[in-house]
Amino acid sequence: MFNDAVLAEYVRDGVVESEHRGFLVALNADGSIFKSLGDVETKIFPRSTVKCAQASAMVRSGLDLEPRLLALAQSSHSGGQMHMDGAREILASVGLSESALQCALDRPLGEAERRAWGERPPTQIAMNCSGKHAAMLATCVKNGWPVETYLEQSHPLQLAIKAELEELAGETISLTSTDGCGAPLFLLSLIGLARAVRAITISTDPVHQSVMSAARAFPEMVGGVGRHNTEMMQQVAGLFMKDGAEAVNVCSLDDGRTFVFKVSDGSLRAFRTIVHACLKDFGIDTPLTLEKVMGGPRVIGTIRATI
What we know:
With 307 residues, the protein is an alpha+beta fold.
């Protein structure tokens, strides 16, 4: 099914017990390929990794948010109080309430936030994409576009987002599906996704610059306390990082160096190891707590990157 490659191995007592296969491409600052594994022309659903492009299309269409809320507009947030309050703030700025949200019902994404939520029923405001959906609705109000149909593929908002992503990636979207949150989801090649992330990172367009600087300035709004992408942006100056469902991840440095990967089995288990290895390839050594493979009370192995 896939022309993928091994990205990481689960090792027990020196024996490879499991493999995490996938696709990876790293770009130099000038856009040339630094490293690739698997077929980089493989089409993938980029999931939440393209929320920066979605936010850019909204800002280009008149959305005007302070950086804290603009970071939330491109988030897969943990569902903390600051995230839900922020989404309500975006909605209230255009006279809407959370009842206008059409994202899926869910409990908070963050582990601590989900425990604190307890047995309360799922809601749309707690869903990790509520910031994006609130921003989509605000953009519609700003333009006089219908809010009831803002998730339809033919809606002016979604057409603007598609055009923004195609421009950044330098390729035509061949298929539009639906993401887990209910918004349109665009099929891209892995290399197209990498080019899009690099392009928005080095862009001199004030729209792109505002979106990226907001994410870097407020990484806790993009993810949440203890979340991997939040921690990495806090630790590495100039880093942008966004993860997505089914094990997609994008990272860029402010000079344009970029890496993107997709784990074929959708597992997040090797994420920290792979990101650490990719950054180390770029000369950046970040803290890493190795995955512990246990043999009774003893640590007898770990997950190691093979890139």
